[in-house]
Amino acid sequence: MIRLHVTQSLSAAAPVAPTLDQSRYLTQVMRLKVGDDLLVFNGHDGEWRCTIAEVLKKGVILRAEAQVRPQVHGPDLELIVAVVKKARVETIVEKAAELGARRVRLVLTKRTNADRIRLDRLDAIAEEAAEQTGRMDVPAVDDPVKLDALLDGWEAGRRLMFCDETGGAPAMRALAPYSPSPLGGGALARGDDGVGRAEQPDALPGPAHPASAAPSPPSPNGEGEAQPKWSILIGPEGGFSPEEGERLRSLPFATAVSLGPRILRADTAAIAAMTLWQAAVGDWER
Asked: Looking at the chain, which terminus has fewer C-beta neighbours within 10 angstroms, N or C?
């Protein structure tokens, strides 16, 4: 069944007016008529079955009939990516939406070689991906900001998976202590190089680093205080500068990870990193 994202409130018998472009899609592309059903969501009120009530010259009017799924949210995961070529940024936003990111943040680094970014285009890509994948919210896409400014204003309690092309623990091993399922866990030990590593089960007990203590598993629908907050950072095509890498490795909330022995393009790295994070920490098994 067709799914449509709208910004209006949804409740029983409420009228819903899609945008003109959405109306054209429903009537001219999908050939829907009065009385036909579709699914509608707005990120707040769950997913609703709606009926086309009227077809006007400039748009259609829907009527909300019944809620078919209550509102749930996925994991609190941000994808932070240095701006790269336009086509690759578009791919990254699409796949981030498909893989469950709640937000995509674009950053400017010392080696960023950026194309012009159209946020309206990226918003439309994120919305379409959300409609097609069955999720009930649309990830936000933020204006580009400088990496230093983003780190200066870092949210307390949010962890950072820093994809470090110069080294780092294998991602699954580095993320194991944060997993709600056993992946060879144990407390997280942080070495002098700032890389998070899983201790052996027989390691001596001691006070946990505040940024590295394993969180309680999130609730099944991704809601609640136990939900861990994470961001994944992907660098520019030329890599992070030495100064940026040094700062990132020094951050107490950051875990440097390796994505393997091969050099990956930014879009491939984003997909790989999110897949590894989802397998270790995300909501794939919930």
From this structure: N
